[in-house]
Backbone:
């Protein structure tokens, strides 16, 4: 009986176990590369939590992951896969920058508001477009979101090398593809005297809002019904196509807002290295990791983003101390995803067994695949 | 003048189709059996690294190619285990595999080789006779071995998929695994086989970049080519001929872009670069009308006794 209980609890802890296992694999790799894993992991820990500044940087790093991750929660619960976080971040950031630069004379709070809204809108359009293509033309959203990522990046490159380029760059002849600095009045307020800005707080509030949306409103119930059982949703007269579009639109809007927050809170201008990575740092992908790690629950995604933010921030420190490229943690993030989705089967089997138990307890003991 | 420029662009366009062809042909086999492997880009990066590392250390091109194939096949095995045996959501596990390959190849490259260097890759093979034909010879018959093999794989894949019992069984597994199972086809073995084959070819796709076309390795060398290869499978409607058209579309634009870049011509080339992606979306949207459908069981794990 006791054993049975432990087994029942296992699925709740699979993300934690996945991280521990990934760190173990990381340790083995560190040893193979001739580095003492204790020293490396100590540097990681200190780099992520060792000082107020380190902790602030961790939260700053976690913020875009949380924005994207919240969107992923909605999309995945709604039965659509959003791989477009990168493009939606970029679209939101470019739109927010363009708006903030266009209205420099407005009061700061108003610039911030319209600029954040523009980012949300652009991201929402970018995500909603994939939803529309799926609903109207059956275009697989995995593919369309990936294609839209590239389209957003090329659009950004065009704008930053052309119409939106800092006039100063053209004057100096250096032609660095970046915009002018946004009006200082539009900087998101700092929470404490570090790099930590209001964006983190916005993200946490939104996490609660997404929870309420998904589990306490009719719209959320319908989104989840479409995701869980499309036939049942159709049978119940739910506008399945509409809700697919809505899920992707909301996911895009959250990521777009995340991009806008990155600009207003952290960079204060838009820049490109030619790829999405330069601006997003792969937050569009790592946000998926965060959401999965948070078991696709918006509240769970908060600590999950924090932990991933810590890994990414600590990895930079570790790179300096033991000369192990921070790419190690990119690889480990991938491993975490594989372990988490690979172990889903345990949870599903349990869910099925629990479904069966009330019907005939006897049957449960006979189920073969335990 | 214009003629020689055109020949140059077309010839390099043919060459650049190579990685797309290997990766998307491999992916087609996997998808026809019902497995979507979204991790192609990660496998390509690992294959590119393995080949490059081997060639730097041994100077042996065949060994390098073999290293890429083994690496790709092993990662394919991993993907097959997670999506077939563990029945995981394939889109997400593919992203996991991508992130893993992206990080791992960069880590290994920086720790084992470090500085950017070049290798002597597969040399151009001028086909006797044919390469002497004016214009056509220059465009089609002065490439390296991996380019020829990639193009030869297109009709070969068509033949295997359409004219052999294996191809028929493969489609059955992807369209209706329950029926295939009842006919005694081992669904899971079929899926393992095709996903491993897909991984192997993705490894070769990576090697074609690092030891035949570019002859360098750097972090994120593929820059998302693997994702495009996956999209090309849909674009081509799961048919080798369609893959060929799609691969050439992307590679020709790449070639054009490369030419513009080398010349330092300052035109907003971003829109040209954007075009293949826009066209891909439009083609995918148009396919709904053409009634080209994905394998019915694509992305659906197989469970015996369920229907």
Residues:
């Amino acid at each position: 009986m006791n054993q049975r209980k432990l087994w029942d609890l296992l699925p709740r802890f699979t993300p934690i176990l996945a991280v521990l296992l990934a760190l173990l694999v990381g340790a083995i790799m560190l040893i193979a590369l001739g580095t003492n894993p204790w020293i490396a992991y100590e540097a990681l820990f200190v780099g992520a939590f060792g000082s107020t500044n380190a902790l602030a940087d961790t939260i700053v790093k976690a913020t875009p992951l949380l924005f994207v991750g919240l969107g992923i929660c909605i999309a995945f619960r709604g039965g659509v896969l959003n791989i477009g976080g990168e493009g939606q971040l970029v679209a939101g950031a470019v739109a927010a920058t363009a708006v903030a630069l266009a209205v420099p004379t407005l009061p700061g709070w108003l610039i911030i508001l319209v600029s954040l809204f523009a980012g949300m809108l652009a991201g929402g359009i970018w995500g909603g477009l994939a939803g529309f293509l799926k609903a109207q033309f059956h275009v697989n959203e995995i593919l369309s979101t990936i294609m839209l990522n590239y389209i957003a990046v090329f659009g950004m490159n065009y704008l930053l090398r052309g119409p939106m380029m800092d006039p100063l760059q053209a004057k100096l002849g250096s032609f660095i593809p970046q915009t002018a600095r946004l009006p200082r009045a539009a900087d998101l307020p700092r929470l404490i005297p570090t790099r930590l800005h209001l964006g983190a707080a916005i993200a946490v509030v939104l996490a609660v809002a997404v929870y309420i949306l998904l589990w306490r409103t009719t719209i959320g119930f319908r989104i989840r019904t479409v995701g869980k059982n499309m036939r049942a949703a159709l049978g119940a007269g739910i506008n399945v196509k509409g809700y697919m579009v809505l899920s992707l639109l909301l996911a895009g809007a959250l990521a777009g807002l995340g991009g806008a927050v990155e600009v207003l809170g952290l960079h204060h201008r838009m820049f490109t290295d030619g790829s999405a990575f330069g601006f997003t740092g792969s937050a569009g992908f790592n946000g998926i990791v965060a959401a999965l790690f948070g078991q696709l629950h918006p509240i769970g995604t908060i600590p999950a983003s924090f932990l991933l933010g810590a890994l990414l921030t600590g990895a930079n420190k570790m790179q300096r101390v033991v000369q192990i490229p921070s790419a190690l943690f990119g690889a480990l993030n991938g491993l975490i995803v594989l372990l988490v989705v690979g172990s889903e089967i345990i949870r599903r089997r349990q869910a099925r067994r629990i479904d069966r138990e009330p019907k005939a307890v006897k049957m449960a003991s006979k189920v073969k695949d335990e | 003048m214009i003629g020689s420029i055109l020949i140059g662009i077309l010839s390099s366009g043919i060459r650049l189709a190579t990685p797309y062809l290997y990766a998307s042909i491999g992916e087609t086999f996997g998808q026809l059996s019902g497995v979507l492997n979204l991790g192609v880009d990660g496998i390509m990066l690992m294959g590119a690294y393995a080949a490059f590392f081997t060639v730097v250390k041994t100077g042996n091109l065949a060994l390098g190619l073999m290293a890429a194939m083994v690496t790709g096949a092993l990662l394919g095995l991993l993907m097959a285990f997670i999506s077939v045996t563990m029945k995981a959501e394939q889109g997400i596990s593919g992203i996991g595999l991508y992130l893993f390959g992206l990080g791992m190849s960069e880590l290994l490259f920086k720790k084992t080789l470090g500085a950017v260097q070049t290798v002597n890759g597969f040399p151009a093979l001028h086909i006797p006779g044919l390469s002497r034909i004016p214009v056509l010879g220059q465009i089609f018959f002065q490439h390296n071995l991996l380019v020829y093999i990639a193009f030869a794989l297109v009709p070969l894949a068509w033949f295997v998929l359409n004219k052999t019992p294996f191809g028929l069984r493969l489609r059955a597994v992807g369209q209706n695994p329950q029926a295939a199972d009842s006919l005694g086809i081992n669904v899971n073995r079929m899926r393992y086989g095709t996903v491993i084959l897909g991984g192997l070819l993705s490894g070769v796709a990576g090697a074609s970049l690092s030891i035949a076309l570019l002859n360098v390795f750097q972090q994120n060398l593929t820059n998302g080519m693997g994702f495009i290869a996956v999209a090309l499978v849909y674009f081509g409607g799961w048919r080798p001929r369609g893959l060929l058209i799609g691969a050439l579309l992307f590679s020709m634009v790449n070639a054009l872009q490369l030419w513009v870049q080398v010349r330092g011509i300052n035109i907003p080339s971003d829109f040209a670069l954007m075009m293949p992606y826009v066209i891909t979306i439009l083609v995918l949207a148009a396919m709904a009308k053409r009634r080209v459908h994905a394998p019915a069981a694509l992305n659906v794990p197989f469970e015996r006794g369920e229907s």
Summary: Chain A has a mean pLDDT of 89. The CA atoms of residues 71 and 254 of chain A lie 6 Å apart.
